[in-house]
Automatic annotation (TrEMBL):
It catalyses: Random hydrolysis of (1->6)-alpha-D-mannosidic linkages in unbranched (1->6)-mannans. Pfam families: Glyco_hydro_76 (PF03663). Keywords: Glycoprotein, Glycosidase, Hydrolase, Signal. It comes from the Eukaryota. Its EC number is 3.2.1.101. This is Mannan endo-1,6-alpha-mannosidase. SUPFAM superfamilies: Six-hairpin glycosidases. GO terms for biological process: carbohydrate catabolic process; fungal-type cell wall biogenesis.
């Protein structure tokens, strides 16, 4: 691999203690993000040359989600320290058909898992993230392959459509369930590909999936996004359980469609209403106003390993949506500025005083630690930099980059590009 070396002193930001976060200070935000990113990466033992699965209890899908958090870190802060490691991880999992259908993880891969990897691959395409292997298709083509794989499993035999949670009959747990995270993932990828490629087919599918989700009641009149329903019941038994990240997934898809359609009022309203509905995941108590929490599990200490990372994706997509629908900025900042400040106080555990906890509303570290806690704090805090970031690329601006920017530990430098 070839590297272009260039030093930009303005980007050389020292790591900072999370407890010292100043939410309106770019240097402070970057310094705290750098500290938390290092904490997150401590859970991953892969290298720039070798992919390694996350250790138990983390499932394969969370590795895909984790790469997305680290892509965001590189994009928002300009710190390319981990770029080679993340690229290697993403490329190691493409599968024999280049669609992230991994034979090694077939026993656990569902449609939502594939979509989670798709979010990261799509982000790599939208940012011209380096793809150093000419034997593997471009990030954009990989994203389209994932979309084709998901589209092929759209199932009109029950509920007049929708994706099931699971893919393989060998994994019956969830095979009868059509869930919003799978369908929301397909919706969001459709919207982002519509924007990136200009292909109307993707936009038509985004509209189709949105309309289906509303028609079966998984998005209700108040824009709450419910968990799913049974195919065998023709989706008449909607599970009212709600998680923050499903709202975030649909929100970013709606915001992308607002951009695709030139600000169509329907999509702007949908994005706006979804942000309003996410308020259900902020402020568990009167003295914790606007602090994010996973309402389904945090207060009763029943969050699974998966659930402990959901706030990461909620924050990621809330921040990103403001780039497409600027009118969302006041509401998103009201919620996430407070949450970022609370998260920074939660990242004060461990021997180094920088380990992140789960509950942000306790005004400190709660003793619950893990990759999900690190990712949630990281995405919420680094998203404070979104206004100064570049919008996702589209059309001819999306190219294949073969060279990494800078060297490990140094900031970004212009990279050589070649057309896809």
């Amino acid at each position: 691999m070839k590297f272009v070396k260039s030093v930009h002193p303005a980007l050389l930001v020292a790591a900072a203690l999370p407890r010292d976060l100043k939410v309106n200070d770019v240097v402070s935000v970057k310094g705290v993000a750098r500290t938390i990113a290092a904490g997150a990466m401590s859970y991953y033992s892969g290298t720039p040359d070798k992919f390694v699965d996350l250790p138990a209890p983390y499932y394969w899908w969370q590795m895909g989600a984790f790469t997305g958090s680290m892509l965001d870190y590189s994009h928002y802060t300009g710190d390319t320290t981990y770029d080679q490691t993340i690229a290697t991880a993403l490329l190691a999992q493409v599968g024999p058909d280049f669609d992230y259908m991994s034979p090694a993880h077939a026993g656990q891969e569902g449609n939502d898992d594939q979509a989670m990897w798709g979010f990261s691959v799509m982000a790599a395409a939208e940012r011209n993230f380096p793809q150093p292997r000419p034997d593997i298709p471009s990030w954009l083509q990989l994203s389209e392959n994932i979309w084709n794989s998901l589209a092929a499993r759209w199932d009109p035999s029950t509920c007049a459509g929708g994706l099931r949670w699971q893919i393989f009959a060998s994994n019956p747990n969830g095979l009868d369930y059509k869930n919003t995270v799978s369908n929301g993932g397909f919706f969001q990828l459709s919207a982002r590909l519509a924007r990136a490629t200009g292909n109307e087919t993707y936009a038509q599918w985004a509209t189709k999936v949105w309309d289906w989700t509303v028609a079966v009641g998984m998005i209700d009149a108040n824009y709450n996004v419910h968990d799913g329903a049974s195919a065998s019941a023709n989706c008449t038994d909607t599970n009212p359980l709600t998680f923050s990240y499903t709202s975030g997934i649909y929100l970013y898809g709606a915001a992308a469609m607002a951009d695709v359609t030139g600000g169509d009022a329907r999509w702007v309203e949908r994005a706006t209403r979804l942000v309003g509905a996410t308020r259900a995941f902020f402020g568990p108590f009167a003295n914790a106003t606007n602090i994010m929490y996973e309402a389904a599990c945090e207060e009763v200490d029943r969050c699974t390993t998966d659930m402990r990372s959901f706030k990461a994706y909620t924050a990621r997509f809330m921040w990103a949506s403001t780039l497409y629908v600027p009118s969302l900025v006041p509401a998103v900042e009201e919620l996430l500025h407070t949450s970022a400040a609370a998260a920074s106080k939660a990242c004060t555990g461990g021997v180094d005083g920088t380990t992140c906890g789960q509950k942000w509303y306790v005004n400190g570290f709660d003793g619950k630690t893990g990759l999900g806690e690190e990712m949630s704090a990281l995405e919420t805090i680094q998203g404070l930099l979104v206004a100064g970031s570049k919008r996702p690329l589209k059309g001819g601006d999306i190219k294949v980059v073969r060279e990494f920017r800078g060297v490990v530990g140094e900031p970004a430098a212009p990279a050589a590009m070649s057309h896809r």
